[in-house]
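Consider the following assembly input.
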Amino acid sequence: MFEVIAGVLLLAGGFFVLIAAIGVLRLPDILMRMHASTKAGTLGAGMILLAVAFTYGEIGIVSRAIATIFFILMTAPVAAHAIGRAAYRYGITFWKGTVIDELKEYYESSIQASQQQETKEKS
Amino acid sequence: MDFFSIAILGVYILLSLALLISLVRVIVGPTLPDRVVALDLIAFIVISFIAAYSISSGHPVYLDVAIVMALIAFLGTIAFARYVIQYSNKTKSEGGHV
Protein backbone atom coordinates (compact mmCIF):
# COMPACT_ATOMS: atom_id res chain seq x y z
CA MET A 1 0.00 0.00 0.00
CA PHE A 2 2.73 2.46 1.02
CA GLU A 3 4.69 1.50 -2.09
CA VAL A 4 1.81 2.58 -4.32
CA ILE A 5 1.52 5.94 -2.50
CA ALA A 6 5.29 6.44 -2.76
CA GLY A 7 5.26 5.61 -6.49
CA VAL A 8 2.43 8.07 -7.19
CA LEU A 9 4.22 10.76 -5.17
CA LEU A 10 7.46 10.11 -7.06
CA LEU A 11 5.81 10.41 -10.47
CA ALA A 12 3.85 13.53 -9.47
CA GLY A 13 6.98 15.15 -8.03
CA GLY A 14 8.98 14.44 -11.17
CA PHE A 15 6.13 15.85 -13.26
CA PHE A 16 6.04 19.10 -11.26
CA VAL A 17 9.82 19.52 -11.47
CA LEU A 18 9.61 19.03 -15.24
CA ILE A 19 6.82 21.65 -15.41
CA ALA A 20 9.07 24.05 -13.49
CA ALA A 21 11.94 23.48 -15.95
CA ILE A 22 9.66 23.99 -18.96
CA GLY A 23 8.38 27.19 -17.35
CA VAL A 24 11.94 28.46 -16.83
CA LEU A 25 12.71 27.80 -20.49
CA ARG A 26 9.50 29.10 -22.05
CA LEU A 27 8.21 32.07 -20.03
CA PRO A 28 9.07 35.54 -21.39
CA ASP A 29 10.68 37.50 -18.52
CA ILE A 30 12.63 36.73 -15.38
CA LEU A 31 9.92 37.43 -12.81
CA MET A 32 7.60 34.97 -14.54
CA ARG A 33 10.42 32.42 -14.73
CA MET A 34 10.93 32.78 -10.99
CA HIS A 35 7.21 32.24 -10.51
CA ALA A 36 7.52 28.89 -12.31
CA SER A 37 10.77 27.68 -10.77
CA THR A 38 10.10 28.60 -7.14
CA LYS A 39 6.59 27.27 -6.69
CA ALA A 40 6.53 24.20 -8.94
CA GLY A 41 10.12 23.28 -8.05
CA THR A 42 9.42 23.43 -4.31
CA LEU A 43 6.28 21.33 -4.70
CA GLY A 44 8.06 18.70 -6.81
CA ALA A 45 11.07 18.37 -4.50
CA GLY A 46 8.76 18.21 -1.47
CA MET A 47 6.69 15.43 -3.06
CA ILE A 48 9.80 13.34 -3.83
CA LEU A 49 11.08 13.78 -0.27
CA LEU A 50 7.65 12.74 1.00
CA ALA A 51 7.95 9.62 -1.18
CA VAL A 52 11.22 8.80 0.64
CA ALA A 53 9.38 9.08 3.95
CA PHE A 54 6.62 6.73 2.69
CA THR A 55 9.09 4.19 1.29
CA TYR A 56 11.12 3.63 4.45
CA GLY A 57 8.55 4.43 7.13
CA GLU A 58 11.10 4.52 9.99
CA ILE A 59 10.89 7.31 12.50
CA GLY A 60 14.42 8.67 11.93
CA ILE A 61 14.07 8.83 8.16
CA VAL A 62 10.54 10.26 8.24
CA SER A 63 11.61 13.04 10.60
CA ARG A 64 14.65 13.81 8.46
CA ALA A 65 12.55 13.98 5.27
CA ILE A 66 9.99 16.25 6.95
CA ALA A 67 12.79 18.47 8.28
CA THR A 68 14.18 18.80 4.76
CA ILE A 69 10.73 19.70 3.37
CA PHE A 70 10.30 22.28 6.14
CA PHE A 71 13.73 23.75 5.40
CA ILE A 72 12.97 24.02 1.68
CA LEU A 73 9.59 25.62 2.37
CA MET A 74 11.27 28.18 4.65
CA THR A 75 14.21 29.10 2.42
CA ALA A 76 12.77 29.04 -1.12
CA PRO A 77 10.65 32.24 -0.72
CA VAL A 78 13.57 34.09 0.90
CA ALA A 79 15.91 33.14 -1.94
CA ALA A 80 13.30 34.06 -4.56
CA HIS A 81 12.73 37.44 -2.90
CA ALA A 82 16.49 38.12 -2.87
CA ILE A 83 16.94 37.23 -6.55
CA GLY A 84 13.84 39.18 -7.57
CA ARG A 85 15.05 42.32 -5.82
CA ALA A 86 18.54 41.91 -7.25
CA ALA A 87 17.13 41.39 -10.75
CA TYR A 88 15.04 44.56 -10.44
CA ARG A 89 18.07 46.58 -9.33
CA TYR A 90 20.08 45.04 -12.17
CA GLY A 91 17.66 46.67 -14.62
CA ILE A 92 15.90 43.77 -16.31
CA THR A 93 13.58 44.43 -19.24
CA PHE A 94 9.97 43.48 -18.58
CA TRP A 95 7.69 41.57 -20.87
CA LYS A 96 5.90 43.86 -23.36
CA GLY A 97 2.49 43.00 -21.84
CA THR A 98 3.44 44.19 -18.34
CA VAL A 99 0.77 46.63 -17.12
CA ILE A 100 2.10 48.13 -13.90
CA ASP A 101 5.48 48.68 -12.23
CA GLU A 102 4.79 49.97 -8.73
CA LEU A 103 8.39 49.71 -7.54
CA LYS A 104 9.71 52.18 -10.12
CA GLU A 105 8.88 55.45 -8.34
CA TYR A 106 10.01 54.09 -5.00
CA TYR A 107 13.42 53.00 -6.28
CA GLU A 108 14.01 56.19 -8.27
CA SER A 109 13.31 58.36 -5.22
CA SER A 110 15.49 56.20 -2.98
CA ILE A 111 18.38 56.26 -5.49
CA GLN A 112 18.12 60.07 -5.81
CA ALA A 113 18.09 60.41 -2.02
CA SER A 114 21.21 58.29 -1.65
CA GLN A 115 22.98 60.28 -4.39
CA GLN A 116 22.08 63.58 -2.71
CA GLN A 117 23.43 62.25 0.54
CA GLU A 118 26.67 61.29 -1.18
CA THR A 119 27.11 64.77 -2.68
CA LYS A 120 26.42 66.34 0.72
CA GLU A 121 29.05 64.17 2.33
CA LYS A 122 31.55 65.14 -0.35
CA SER A 123 30.91 68.87 0.03
CA MET B 1 8.46 -5.16 -13.16
CA ASP B 2 6.03 -3.79 -10.62
CA PHE B 3 4.61 -0.30 -10.37
CA PHE B 4 7.21 0.95 -7.89
CA SER B 5 10.25 0.20 -10.07
CA ILE B 6 8.48 1.72 -13.07
CA ALA B 7 7.82 4.84 -10.97
CA ILE B 8 11.51 5.07 -10.02
CA LEU B 9 12.55 4.70 -13.67
CA GLY B 10 9.95 7.31 -14.70
CA VAL B 11 11.09 9.83 -12.10
CA TYR B 12 14.69 9.45 -13.26
CA ILE B 13 13.62 10.16 -16.85
CA LEU B 14 11.49 13.18 -15.86
CA LEU B 15 14.25 14.65 -13.69
CA SER B 16 16.88 14.15 -16.40
CA LEU B 17 14.67 15.97 -18.92
CA ALA B 18 14.14 18.81 -16.41
CA LEU B 19 17.90 19.03 -15.83
CA LEU B 20 18.60 19.27 -19.57
CA ILE B 21 15.91 21.91 -20.12
CA SER B 22 17.10 24.13 -17.28
CA LEU B 23 20.71 23.70 -18.49
CA VAL B 24 19.56 25.25 -21.78
CA ARG B 25 18.34 28.30 -19.83
CA VAL B 26 21.68 28.56 -18.00
CA ILE B 27 23.53 28.58 -21.32
CA VAL B 28 21.14 30.89 -23.21
CA GLY B 29 20.93 33.50 -20.47
CA PRO B 30 20.37 36.29 -21.54
CA THR B 31 21.18 38.16 -18.27
CA LEU B 32 22.96 37.17 -15.06
CA PRO B 33 19.78 36.98 -12.88
CA ASP B 34 18.26 34.56 -15.43
CA ARG B 35 21.21 32.25 -14.96
CA VAL B 36 20.97 32.52 -11.16
CA VAL B 37 17.28 31.52 -11.28
CA ALA B 38 18.07 28.54 -13.52
CA LEU B 39 20.93 27.46 -11.23
CA ASP B 40 18.54 27.65 -8.27
CA LEU B 41 16.15 25.33 -10.11
CA ILE B 42 19.05 22.97 -10.95
CA ALA B 43 19.85 22.76 -7.22
CA PHE B 44 16.22 21.75 -6.57
CA ILE B 45 16.42 19.10 -9.29
CA VAL B 46 19.65 17.72 -7.79
CA ILE B 47 17.95 17.52 -4.37
CA SER B 48 15.13 15.54 -5.99
CA PHE B 49 17.67 13.30 -7.75
CA ILE B 50 19.44 12.50 -4.47
CA ALA B 51 16.11 11.71 -2.78
CA ALA B 52 15.10 9.40 -5.65
CA TYR B 53 18.52 7.72 -5.52
CA SER B 54 18.16 7.15 -1.78
CA ILE B 55 14.97 5.22 -2.58
CA SER B 56 16.34 3.17 -5.47
CA SER B 57 19.70 2.31 -3.85
CA GLY B 58 18.16 1.31 -0.51
CA HIS B 59 20.54 3.50 1.51
CA PRO B 60 18.54 6.19 3.36
CA VAL B 61 21.84 7.83 4.41
CA TYR B 62 21.75 9.80 1.15
CA LEU B 63 18.94 11.92 2.63
CA ASP B 64 21.60 13.75 4.67
CA VAL B 65 23.28 14.72 1.41
CA ALA B 66 19.95 16.20 0.26
CA ILE B 67 19.75 18.33 3.44
CA VAL B 68 23.29 19.67 2.93
CA MET B 69 22.56 20.33 -0.75
CA ALA B 70 19.44 22.35 0.19
CA LEU B 71 21.53 24.41 2.64
CA ILE B 72 24.29 25.10 0.10
CA ALA B 73 21.76 26.00 -2.63
CA PHE B 74 20.11 28.57 -0.34
CA LEU B 75 23.43 30.15 0.67
CA GLY B 76 24.65 30.20 -2.92
CA THR B 77 21.49 31.90 -4.14
CA ILE B 78 21.69 34.57 -1.43
CA ALA B 79 25.37 35.18 -2.21
CA PHE B 80 24.62 35.52 -5.92
CA ALA B 81 21.79 37.99 -5.20
CA ARG B 82 24.11 40.16 -3.09
CA TYR B 83 26.73 40.03 -5.83
CA VAL B 84 24.20 41.10 -8.49
CA ILE B 85 23.05 44.04 -6.33
CA GLN B 86 26.62 45.20 -5.70
CA TYR B 87 27.48 44.85 -9.39
CA SER B 88 24.47 46.92 -10.49
CA ASN B 89 25.17 49.61 -7.85
CA LYS B 90 28.75 49.88 -9.08
CA THR B 91 27.83 50.18 -12.77
CA LYS B 92 25.06 52.68 -11.99
CA SER B 93 27.31 54.96 -9.92
CA GLU B 94 29.90 54.91 -12.69
CA GLY B 95 27.20 56.01 -15.12
CA GLY B 96 27.70 53.02 -17.37
CA HIS B 97 25.01 51.06 -19.11
CA VAL B 98 23.77 48.17 -16.98
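Residues 3-94 of chain B form one domain. Ask yourself how this observation constrains the way the partners meet.
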